[in-house]
Amino acid sequence: MVRENPTVVLVHGAFADSSGFNVITKRLVADGFPVIAAPNPLRGLASDAAQVKALLANIEGPIVLVGHSYGGAVISAAATGNREVKALVYLAAFVPEAGESAQALVEKFPGSTVGESLKPVPLPGGQVDLYIDPRVFHPHFAADVPAEEAALFAITQRPATGQALGEPATGPQAWQTIPNYNLISGADRIIPPAAQEFMAQRSGAQVQMVEGASHMVFVSRPGATVGLIEKAANENAHSL
C-alpha cells in the first residue's frame, strides 16, 4: 500500500505574504506533496494562531506545519492539541516559550537591524502597522536575494501590528510535544543567528545551518528549505 504524502502548510511571517513561498511550493507539489499557504493576518499572536488553528482542523490526514519568522510563533500555538500535525519546521523563525514575544526574542541577542528598519504607520484607535522601509529591505531583510526580486518583495510586503510583534506567547507550545526542525539563516540581519540557535537548541530541534543566508532563506536557498521540509515529512508523517 502506497502511503500518501502529508499536507504541507506554509505560514508566512511579518513583512511578507504567501507569494514568497512560490518557488518552494512548486518544488513540493512536483514531489507529490499537497500544499496550503495559510493566510496569516499579522494582527495579534493569539488571534493569528486561532485562524491558522481553524484551518488546520479542516485538513484531512497528516500535516507538516512550516513557519517563517513571526510565523514560527504562530505555528507554535496553532498546532497545540492537533494530533494530525506530525512535525513543525521553523525557517529563520521565532520559537517562543510562554511569556516570550517576537520583540523580546529579537532583542535577546545583538545583531538585529529590525528596529532601525521599521517604518510605522499609525492606525485609527492608537495601534500601529509596521513595515520594513523599502530603502533597506534588500540589505537588511533579503541580502542574498537578487536586488530586483527583493524590490518586489518590499513592495508586496504586508505589515504586522506592533501588538502582534509585542504580544507574548501563552500556554503550551506545540514544539514541546511535536518533533521539530529548524533551518537557521547564518547571515540573518533580522533574527540574529545566535537567537535562532538558542531557540532551536531549547526546542530540541533537528538543526540545519545555511551559511550566508539572509532572513529570506526560503527564497534564496529553496533546495535546502524543501529538503528539510521533506525530511520532516518522511520521518514523521505516518507516526501515530
From TrEMBL:
Coiled-coil region(s): none
Gene Ontology MF terms in the entry: hydrolase activity
UniProt entry tagged with the keyword Transferase: no
Matching InterPro entries: AB_hydrolase_1, AB_hydrolase_fold, Sec-Metab_Biosynth_Hydrolase
Keyword terms: Hydrolase
Positions of the AB hydrolase-1 domain: 8-226
Pfam families, A to Z: Abhydrolase_6 (PF12697)
Protein name: Alpha/beta hydrolase
